[in-house]
Amino acid sequence: MALSTQPYKGARDFYPADKRMQKYLFSVMRRVCESYGYEEYDTPILEPTELFASKTSDEIVNEQTYTFTDRGGRSVTVRTEMTPSVSRMVAAKRQELAYPLRLYAIPNLWRYERPQRGRLREFWQLNADIFGVAGLAAEQELIQLLDDIMQAYGAKRDMYTIKLSSRKLINAFLGEVLGMDETQITTMIRLIDRMHKMEHPEFIGQADAIFSPTQRETGASEQLFALLNTSSLDSLPATIANHETSISMKRIIEKLEKAKITNVVYDPTIMRGFDYYTDIVFEVYDTDPENNRAMFGGGRYDSLVSLFGVDAVPTIGFGMGDVTLLNFLETHNLLPKLRPETDIYIVTIGEADEAASKAAADLREMDINVALDITGRQAEKQIKTAEKKGVHYVLFVGEKEAASQQFVLKDLESGTQETHGLERIASIVKDYRSA
Amino acid sequence: MALSTQPYKGARDFYPADKRMQKYLFSVMRRVCESYGYEEYDTPILEPTELFASKTSDEIVNEQTYTFTDRGGRSVTVRTEMTPSVSRMVAAKRQELAYPLRLYAIPNLWRYERPQRGRLREFWQLNADIFGVAGLAAEQELIQLLDDIMQAYGAKRDMYTIKLSSRKLINAFLGEVLGMDETQITTMIRLIDRMHKMEHPEFIGQADAIFSPTQRETGASEQLFALLNTSSLDSLPATIANHETSISMKRIIEKLEKAKITNVVYDPTIMRGFDYYTDIVFEVYDTDPENNRAMFGGGRYDSLVSLFGVDAVPTIGFGMGDVTLLNFLETHNLLPKLRPETDIYIVTIGEADEAASKAAADLREMDINVALDITGRQAEKQIKTAEKKGVHYVLFVGEKEAASQQFVLKDLESGTQETHGLERIASIVKDYRSA
Question: Is A3 near chain B, with CB under 8 Å?
Fold first, then answer.
């Protein structure tokens, strides 16, 4: 029986046009990250399983990892996120590294999920993190970086909203104000994280089930819903209005407004799924009604590095997935038309193989990307191939052209052609390329 | 207990300096491949296991794959090589694709092996393939491409040798001349492939065991050793001297010599491990006595695409691994010194956070990569951080500088400093960058 030509479910083959788009997406990420001084790193796609256990969310570890035993009996996991790995790397050279340490990577990650819009089993994710800054300036910079990347893709600020919240604040509210214990708090935070995925009465029912009878009697439920309905830091319940994190978030929003990032809002329902967040968390939402959903996000996780037996390092980071990004750019018509990298397709006339090969080599010396037709077919068929590949120019090389060193360059889009020496041809092509 | 900071055995963490080197290696590969009209593609790192069974070598499939069952009960394998995947991709769009189809990728691959010099469990490998050309011009182009990549790294032709052989020729010799059957031939080819890893008497013993008594009596053994000792196509045994592939190889070597690639030789012992090769195979050897070993190679595999139930496509390709490449470049002192991508480290003086942030943003607008110190530490400590990171310039920003828009730029290498406006600073930095 013939083998299937399909890739593994939920994963993609990248044909040249797809790969070109991916390279465009990544090159923007790289350019903007490096303009802020972030340095690229990478880690292995397979990690010891214990790295993910208890640091990622339970749902991911128990249901969504690709975990197996290697031939030496060790349990390994295909990475589902980058944060545990980068924390491991930083912990390994805790003393030698220079802080603030700004790192980014664009790893591929795997989660065993039902493939759906915006969600595949294999996806790529920009991860940008800053290690060693406890102050708000780190939050400000990371949100600015995220916003700058969106701007670099051509997004306008009315196309997305950056929603801000704080784990520390919700912890204080649930613990100090409502009197919940740690277990209750963890359960409630996970419930709030899923809030927008369920009907409101269901959410209320489940939330009520978490409160103790005494808490319910003293109106904990109502107080919680009042907080979750707050849409501005100015109308926070009095019990937490002056909490240090409330003030911090106000300051971050003010500072970002000064930098013209006017689409940052407070949203108390933002939790982020991972257990390791310690304070400010944020999420970027698409404002398009067709695609109104969380796209990317991040937050502060000050304790993760210390799990490796070294002193804690204050850290904040975010992730930006390629699948949601592609959906967003498509929805808002922001995907560019990308040209093939090949500048010229050489059509070899008759037996002029050596002359064609020489012309190709000469043009490459002048930094022109040249595909040479080496099939020996008739010229017409060679031109068809060039057209099918979307190459802009064909160059005809026969014995006559080789002897005179004058070659016909044809623009396949306009159909016009002109005859020149190779240097002039290289310069025409470069002009087109940079136009 | 604290978690281990070590990556999985045989895999690497890439800290910024390591990643920078990897990006350099890959950028050279990309640049040269694209100059020949090769287009980049990619495929998922997990593939259905049946894709690798019986196409790769038995040793790899049975002993070296990472194979496991996913949560849905499907057997998946972490890719050990790219050839089966790219064949699958081409088969899936057999009709739509335009031939000659030139493809390249730089995937990471995994093999469960004992880590050693030149061999790790996770490695990257450039794969370049040309689909749809049956003639020798494809062999010639691919070897030229491989050679061009070596040249682009600064290698001289006396640093490496390109060894050429042919599966078709050895098959003809073993089958038609020595009278071996298919099973004997397959076993013998695998033995010859391991020839240089064993002592000569051991090899002779094992080869003799493959021959039948009649074959041994008629001198098959001696004839085989005579062939394997041949170092030139001009001194081939008469029985195969005029075989079409002998003539083809001569022609390839001649054509490459014309293109100044003078380090191509015939070596009948070159087999390449994979079962799918159908004719010409080649391997690049390091000539350094310390590192005299096969580094990269490839060959023609005309039948693989047809395993997916479509018509066969003549194909030839090669792989070039990053670990062996790094060893080679180190051995021959060809690794470049790479600078950090960050151009300027801004030292924030006093409380001038906003001014510093503004200066950073202005410089980024002028395409300068700027890391901003946001720690609020004393200037001396900030400078130390810049030095530790290897950033060439620091820029001092305080309230006074912000008011006058005149900033001190310090060259950390020479220790000299000068005072300018931001535009002039940007131009100084760009001059340094492109120097």
Answer: yes
